[in-house]
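Before relying on records like the one below, remember that each one covers exactly one chain. Contacts with other chains, cofactors or solvent are not represented anywhere in the record.
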Amino acid sequence: MKVSVLMLACVAATAWAQQPSSPAAGGPKSFGQLTGSVVCDDSGRPGRFASVELLTDQLPRTPAVPTINPADLARGSDFSKSLSREVDSAMSTAFRAMRGSSLSTVTGLDGRFALEKVPAGTYYIIVQLEGYRSALSGLSQRERLRPDSGILAAVKSKAQKIVVRNGETTSVRVRLDRGATVSGTVTYSDGSPVSGVVPELLRRGQDGRWEIAALFGLPNRTDDRGRFRFYGLPAGQYAVQAALPTTQAVTGLGLGQVSLHMASGDALVVYSGGALRKSDITPVDLADGASRTGVDIVFPLDGLHTLSGSVVARSDHHPVNFGTIELQDPRTKESLRTLIVGEDGTFKLRYVPDGSYLLKVTSAADMKHGPGELPCPLGCKELREYASTALPLTVRGDRSGLVLQVVGPTDR
C-alpha cells in the first residue's frame, strides 16, 4: 500500500501541475474565441500535436497531496482510513485535471488550434512540443510543481502575451525554436552497457544548486546499448545522474505475475564526468541550439564496499525495528542513500565507494504489528520513539557490526 499511495500522490501532483490556471472566481463572465497556428522555426513546417495552454496572471492552483509522516503512520488503522480518504480526494482532483479545460488544447496535423470559449482577459500562451523550447523550459521539477510569484513572472516574461475580448476572435501565430541536446551512454567500468535505467538531467540554478530539470514528456530509459538523449533544452549548465538499477518491477508468466524488487540502500548514484557527489560535478555548458555528445556515466565495478549493522536502544540495547537509515556527505549533508531499517533492527548498504560519510538514523521507533497484513509502518502501532543519531565513518573497505544507539524520551 505504501508504494501505491506514493504513486497516486505523484499522479495527482503531476496532473494538477499540467492543468492551466483558470480565471479567478468572480472574474469576467464574457467570452471570446482564440485561434492560431504553431510553426517550427528551424523547418518552417507546422508544429503538429503541440500542446497549447493559456496562463493567467494568477498562480496555478496547487492541490493538497497526501503526505506521509512516520509519526502519523504509527496511529495504525485510523490513519490508514484517513489516508485512504485523502488519496480518493487527490485522485478525483487528478482525473478532473486530466480532462483538461477551456484554456488548453492540442494542435492538429496542420499545426492549427482553436479554443472556442475563452473567458475575456489577458493571457500568456504556453506551447510545448518535444525537441523545442517553451516558456517553461529551464524550470526544475520543484519549480514546475510548486511555482511561486517569481517563477510566474519569469514564465510570463518568456511567453507570448495575448488579449481575448468579449465576442471577438483573437488570432495568434507561435514560432518554436529548437532546443539544445545532451546525449551520452551509461556503462559499467568494464564497458558493458547499462540498459533500462532512467538518467536524470540536472540543471544548475542561479544560486549554484543542482536540481532535477523538468522535461516535457515521460522519462526515458537507456536503450540496449545504454544510450540516452535529452532535447529541447535552453542554454545553461547541465549534468546527468543515474542510479544502479536496484529497484525493478519484473513481469513473469501469467496474469498479475509482477514482482517488485526494491533495494534502495544499494542504489549508487554516479554523475556525468565520473563524480560520485554533487559537490564534485563538472558542469556541461550548453549554448542555445547546441548539441553535446559524450556526456557519459560510468558505474565503477571496483573499490565498492558493504556497510552493515544494527539500530539499538541505548537503554537496554534491544533492536529497534523501525527507522530510516541515511548515508550523507559529512561536508554538505547531501543524502547519498536511504533505506528502511529491517524488522530485526539491522541494515545493509552495498556498493559504497571509498570516502568519508555520516551514517544517520531518523524516525527510529519500536513498532508492534497490528491484526492486519499491512507491513510496518502502515500496519503497526508505535510503542516508543527515539531521537535521531549519526555516526561519522571513513570507508576504505567493508564495515560490519556498525551500531547506531538511539535515545528514547526517558533516557535523556
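The chain has a mean pLDDT of 85.
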